[in-house]
Amino acid sequence: MKNLFTFKNDNLLRMALTHRSYVHEHPTAGSDNERLEFLGDAILNFLSGSYLYRQHPELGEDELTRRRAALVDEKQLANFAIALGLDQQILLGKGALRDGGNKSDNLLSCAFEAIVGAYYLDCHCDVEALRPAVETLFESVPAELVNIRADLDAKNRLQEWVQSYIGHILPRYVTEKVGGTDHIPEFASKVYVGDRLYGQSLRNFSSKKEAERAAALDALEQIERML
């Protein structure tokens, strides 16, 4: 797995592995990986959608959307990062490293997205050059695990319920940093429909995505109790 992405441009690889905490402590280190992370996120959404569309001609849009969310969620991308050895290569500031940043699902998933974005640029913006490596990683995920995670995609399920029973309104998440450190923050989230509080995360999480998912799951449990 570790040799799936072979870079021609070492500067792109280094940038993909450079966390902002490292740049803060080493001002001459160049750019951090946040812009590459943005690019990689968009590419992974496309490639995972394309992969699932071809693999599952029997599935409709809703189920494909749930499985895509499961295939590229934070935990799974962090697992891909570890499979590639990024946890041993990511450049972190001393504070982030002391706080266990190279074991953080949030930081590792971001590093993996950055690697994908950087490799896309390294391949002269040819997305097809990425497909074999990325799909090798997708194929390594057991189908049963994707199914379980798809079933747990609470945010999509809550949105579907709201639009079916309340109307064309989207759940609104209020997510705040409530603890942790600057390098590895902790978040809590509440979800509203209109002005009404429907659910909240019952503990703190290392990423906004996980906190919002927990709030959505709490909302679904509250709804089930009311029915």
Automatic annotation (TrEMBL):
GO molecular function: ribonuclease III activity
Localization (cell): Cytoplasm
E.C. numbers: 3.1.26.3
UniProt keyword annotations, A-Z: Cytoplasm, Endonuclease, Hydrolase, Magnesium, Metal-binding, mRNA processing, Nuclease, RNA-binding, rRNA processing, rRNA-binding, tRNA processing
Cofactor: Mg(2+)
Start and end residues of each DRBM domain: 153-225
One Pfam family named in its UniProt record: dsrm
Major enzyme class: hydrolase
Positions with a binding annotation for Mg(2+): 37, 113
Catalysed reactions, semicolon-separated: Endonucleolytic cleavage to 5'-phosphomonoester
Active site (UniProt): 41, 113
InterPro entries, per the entry: dsRBD_dom, RNase_III, RNase_III_dom, RNase_III_sf
Primary location class: cytoplasm
RNase III domain mapped to chain residues: 1-124
Origin superkingdom: Bacteria
UniProt-listed NCBIfam families: RNaseIII
Family membership: Belongs to the ribonuclease III family.
Assembly and binders: Homodimer.
Known function: Digests double-stranded RNA. Involved in the processing of primary rRNA transcript to yield the immediate precursors to the large and small rRNAs (23S and 16S). Processes some mRNAs, and tRNAs when they are encoded in the rRNA operon. Processes pre-crRNA and tracrRNA of type II CRISPR loci if present in the organism.
Protein name: Ribonuclease 3
